[in-house]
Write a structure and sequence with these properties.
The complex is a heterodimer of chains A (763) and B (338).
Chain A lengths: L20 H5 L15 E7 L5 E7 L1 H4 L4 E6 L29 E2 L5 E7 L2 H10 L1 E6 L12 E4 L16 H7 L2 E9 L11 E7 L2 E5 L5 H12 L6 E4 L16 H12 L3 E4 L2 H4 L9 E9 L5 E12 L10 H4 L8 E9 L13 H19 L3 H7 L17 H12 L11 E3 L2 E13 L1 E2 L2 E8 L4 E4 L9 H13 L6 E4 L16 H24 L5 H9 L5 H7 L6 H8 L3 E8 L8 H6 L6 E2 L9 E13 L5 E11 L6 H20 L5 E2 L4 E2 L18 E5 L23 H13 L16
Chain B lengths: L4 E4 L3 H10 L12 E4 L5 H6 L7 E4 L4 H4 L2 E4 L2 E5 L4 H5 L2 H6 L1 H8 L4 H6 L2 H5 L6 H4 L42 H7 L3 E6 L2 E6 L22 E7 L6 E6 L10 E10 L2 E10 L6 E2 L1 H7 L6 H11 L11 H18 L4
Parallel strand pairs in B: 1-3, 2-3
Antiparallel strand pairs in B: 4-5, 5-8, 6-7, 6-8, 9-10, 10-11, 11-12
Helix pairs in contact in B: 6-10, 11-12, 12-13
The chains are: A alpha+beta (763), B alpha+beta (338).
Chain lengths: 763, 338
Amino acid sequence: MSMAAPEPKANMGQSVPRYDAVAKVTGRAQYAADVPLANPAYAYLVTSSIAKGRIDRFDLTVAKQVRGVIDIVTHENAETLKEPKLSSNGGYASTTIQPLKSPEIAHEGQIVAVVLAETFEAAREAAHLVKVSYTAAVPTATFDSPGTTAARAKGQLSQFKEDPAVGDFAKAFEQAEVKVTASYETPTQHHNSMELFATSCVWNGDSLTIYEPSQYVYGLKNAVADQLGIDADKVRVINPYVGGAFGSKGSMTPRTAIIASIARRLGRPVKLVATRDQGFTIATYRAETRHVIQIGAGSDGRLTALRHEGAEISSRPDAYAVGGTKTTTRLYACPNVASLVSIVRADRNTPGFMRSPPEVPYMFALESAMDELAVKLNMDPIELRRVNDTSKEPIGGKPYTSRSLLACYDEGAKAFGWANRNSQPKSMSDGDWLIGYGCATTCYPTQMAPAAARVRLQRDGRARVEIAGHEIGNGAYTVIGQAAAERLGIPFEKVSVFIGDSDLPPAPVAGGSNSTASTCSAVITVCDQIRRRLFKALMPDENLVDKAKETVGLAQPPSTQAAQSDRPLDLDRAFDALGVSVVEEYGEWKPEGAPMDSFRAMHKGEVRMVGGDKMSDKIAYAFGAEFVEVRVNRWTHEIRVPRIVGAFAAGHIMNPRTSHSQLMGGLIWGMSSALHEATEIDPRYARYVNDNLADYLMPVNADVPSVEVIMLSEQDDHINPAGVKGLGELANVGTNAAVCNAIFHATGQRIRKLPVRLEKLEA
Amino acid sequence: MRPFAYQRATDASAAVAALAVAATDNNPLTESKVQPLAGGTTLIDLMKLDVMRPSTVIDINPLASAWSAINLDGGNLRLGALARMSDVAANPEIQHNYPVVADALRLAASQQLRNMATLGGNVLQRTRCTYFRDVSYGNCNKRNPGSGCAALEGINRMHAVLGISEQCIATYPGDFAQALIALDATVEITGRSGVRTIPFSELHKPPGNSPQIETTLAAGELISGFSIPGRWPRSVYLKARDRQSYEFALASAAVALDIQDGVVRDARVALGGVATVPWRAREAEAVIKGQKLDDGLAQRVAEAAFATAKGNKHNAFKIGLGKRVVARALHQAAAMEV
């Protein structure tokens, strides 16, 4: 075992290498834009250079003279597509702003024309020669820009139903012995997945095949069918590998139906690979947020009052909000809680999901404020979390299904050497560098959604698993294969896994960290169907229910099922008895508490996510504790992070190796969200200025000398058959606060507005 | 990117002849329809962005056999213009005798880029001003003279505080040039009428009223080499930036000192990341010469270096940062064991 492939602890699967590792490192893995097409036309987008106004006219004369140009599609000649509905409001789309529909411009970088040519190079050259005349209006860029409108989020979108509150905050805060009131800000961020936003559309008669990186092939298939007005069964989305997504590929963006429509009109395949800078405006992003936190506490550190007010930017037509108060109001014991989330509209593209959408900005505010409170109380910040730990969330009094937060703090603190910390700010240094230690809590809701799978088992012990899950770098192939291998009692090497294709049985969106829990629970369910069939063939006279329980382990609590399916079937005997050489089962699984229409919705590409705070009698979260050492240069104020330690507990760990990667990447992302990543907006033009990887900073290797990931054993029997709490979005939460808390410890300066650039530190 | 013809130069005279062909109008050299290609790390990038639109590219890499030598003879350093940044940075004699040169090169870009980029191309690297690099902004005096400067009232955190004008505040982005200008380097320029040599400090032109003209190179001229007189073992390049590697300077200082018996006999100070051109801080050098370096003196030197600096909305911090970088670099150089 190595650092990358940790030794499994109790209730953990094996650290098997990634199923798709060799294909990826040898370049054999085919991503959407790699798929060869027969005689494709190449599309290149022309996007708007203004953020508000209208197109007066196009001058396409010169562009059309470029050799190889086939056509240029603008709003003047584009097919009219059905208007999409926003995904966070019950639809499929990432935005309702539909380009090529009218001359109106709603945001910078809106698609205004699509150039089609025989080669990519000709399409690009012609696109640079398209002349667009606009009548520009003065746009509203962001908070504080003239022309914003603000309103309470509740009631504007179906996904945000409540501003959690309990008790009497105002009175309790008034009476509190110790008080903290502080404002925080987080910046605009873009996903910047390595794989660009590519779409290839191929028609065969009235059937459409789409090659596009997607976190939700069933969603995309139904969404495009809806916009084109065709039967969803005629649309197939294929993407066996996704080169990073982070939320940006979860809902349909306008480009897909546009390219499909053009391909239908041209009668030949069309391939689009949007450029890096276009990716900033033709898809979604994490909107900038503002927060006010008020905490009241006794001198013993116990919280008596908490108020969290958040405001988020969205586009003019779409009410999108992440609304993280559902988490921050329930994290610590506190009898009096109030909260409010508002949406502020500006002339921007519609924001959307980005890795841990609510938790990254909202937990930054809460975990920074908790550190400020610890300083005011002169209390160790871990001790402050200890006195406010709870087994029941304070809003509805529901119990956490399991909660290992303090164990994570204990393990993490030990590994980090927290005991060596001198609690006084500016007390530690090494030569030119001031040293600071900081910590923060992370948590992420445990979510599940209905999923289906088909499993085939052969007499020779080989199995084939089919499920329309998504390999977005998360290790989906690997853990799905492991779930089947463990359940069927066959070696992992004998399992073939097929995912990323909407012709396979439906799985939910690979978002909200539900993927492993949902897909593995479905696969386990179907493997059990196979075991029952084989068992019944072997012992037709036995009481099936009792014996099945005993044989396939159904009597075990859910979370231990995967680990304990160690009783191999005698396949030769079973297949002899059955009289066939192959058994195949299709099955559907839905989590406890899933709505009545779950299975129907699953096939329609509509997600019915349950879990987290949405369950009637309990609340399920994964937890972690994160520790950061920062060094601040006395002369330059450069901020570096030589060490990060994260300790996490997330139920059954399917694979310590892939989980380790997810968590390590998350910690680096979290550090990046504190120090590096920010999309700058020119307020005059409402335009993204640093829309490229040279100017949109993220850490390079030299910025990440050491990251230590600790996974704690945790068993949770109350969540799903796999016993899994999603962890893909766990580690990048709270890291931003831990970094700022460490900066305070190093310098005595509290930074409440991200990202922390060196100029924010005073001499 | 637009279609272009690609030609390989067979020798220097063919290269300059080919480059001179298109140089009949009064356009700035950067707008010339014929452009030389060496490492390509700037040119190809800007062609993809549609910022540079040459119709012909002359590949001068075949001249490398003649133009990429590294010579340390007679106490001087001569560097061929087609030497790769990585090769020069890794040269042990340069690391020992000219640490400021080796470090300026080593701390620039990434290893992959340094493996490709040549010294001549590097000193001509064009600004990273985001408004310059995005042709959808009409207002850029460098690209469209007279159109205005989007950066002046825009997002200008990375922009210059020294050598700026009302027409342009774009930062000269390179590192190596600060070492050259600090050490009184000369540039060897090959043209149709032979070779001429000018001080490196005369190569770049501050924006003034014509930011589109960036150098004093004439049409049909190529940089063929650089010379640095003397040895400067007590020299440092200090670079402050947002991340630890692969990032441009927010402020940098190239400092070289000659200290005898505790007294500074000669001092060189050049600044990067803060000026529109490679920037020699001669006023600062005057403060230090003949003095003993201490905290107070380092502070006065730094103040002198930025006496004429002017910040804009987001980059005023560079003045304070730059002073601290200069002071730290002075101390670091003084503390070197040579």
